[in-house]
Design goal:
Helices cover 13% and strands 56% of the residues. By secondary structure, the chain is mainly β.
């Protein structure tokens, strides 16, 4: 019986990890805000009335590491916000104020202290006429 329980737990663990965007990131989303360490109104695109966007990541099993959110627009780094990961599960978020003229694709890279890119996410920012 114990053997079957162990196999079941292993299958559950592996299938849950398959839904993660990275083995150490269980969630990575853009949102209109973050409240109580939870992203609110998850988005993949926004018109130019938004003004500010948040990027939220739920980091797992990287205690002691440093993670950076690198905001990139037109291949130029617009901001880098670093976080010290102080627990087995650590939720972090950064935000970016967006000028209405900064339309097009944005990306955020989640980078570790060795400058390895763990994950890249993109969103589209445009004016009301193009979305």
């Amino acid at each position: 019986m114990k053997k079957y329980i162990a196999i079941f737990v292993l299958l559950l663990t592996n299938s849950a990890l398959a839904d993660w965007p990275h083995k150490n990131i269980s969630s990575a989303v853009f949102a209109k805000s973050v409240e109580n360490r939870t992203p609110v109104e998850i988005i993949t695109e926004a018109d130019d009335s938004l003004g500010k966007i948040y990027f939220f990541t739920n980091i797992r099993n990287l205690t002691g590491d440093k993670i950076t959110h690198r905001w990139i627009y037109k291949d130029k780094v617009k901001a880098e916000i670093s976080f010290d990961i102080k627990g087995k599960r650590w939720r972090v978020w950064s935000s970016k104020n967006l000028w209405h003229t900064w339309t097009g694709q944005w990306r955020v890279e989640v980078v570790n202290q060795n400058n390895d890119i763990l994950l890249t996410k993109t969103f589209i920012f445009g004016n009301n006429k193009t979305l």
